[in-house]
Amino acid sequence: xxILAVTLISLSLFASVxxxxxxxxxxxxxxxxxxIVRSDSLQxxxxxxxxxxxxxxxxxxxxxxxxxxxxxxxxxxxxGARSAWHTHPFGQILIVTEGAGWIQRWGGPIEExxxxxxxxxxxxxxxxxxxxxxxxxxxxxxQEELNGKAVEWMEQVTDEQYYK
Length: 164
Description:
Layout: H1 2-25, E1 44-46, E2 52-53, E3 56-62, E4 70-77, E5 82-83, E6 86-87, E7 92-105, E8 111-114, E9 118-121, E10 127-131, E11 137-144, E12 152-153, H2 159-162
Antiparallel strand pairs: 1-3, 2-5, 3-4, 4-11, 6-12, 7-8, 7-9, 7-10, 7-11
C-alpha cells in the first residue's frame, strides 16, 4: 500500500512539474481576437525631409504586433521624390502598387520598378528607392524590426546619384 501511495504521489508531482514547465516556456498569445483596421482610419503623414527628398506621403498600415516583428506601410513618391540611403536589419519587401520608380543598391546600377513588381532587398544592403523624374510611384513596404528598429537611415541620395 505504501508503494502505491508513493508511486501516486510521485506521478502527481511529475505531472505538476511537467505541466508547469510547458506553460512557463510557451508564450500565450496576447489576444485571440482578429483585429480589423478600416482604411478610412489610416492617416498619412508627409515624409520627413531628414529621410526623403521631394514630396512623399507615408501611411503606416500595421505596426509590429507582439510577438511579430513585422510592420508595413504604404509610401507614395511624387515624380522626382526618393528615400535617403538606408538598410534594414532583416531586409525588406516592396510591392509596387502604382506607377514606376527606381531602386539602387550601393555600388550597383539604378533599376526600374513598375506596378505589380515585388522587390526583395536583403538584410543590411544599403539602398534607396523612389519615383522616376517624370512618374509618381506607390509601394507597400514590409520589414521586420530588430530591437524595435526596422530601418537605419543614412545620407541623402544626391541629384548626381539620382540622375546618373
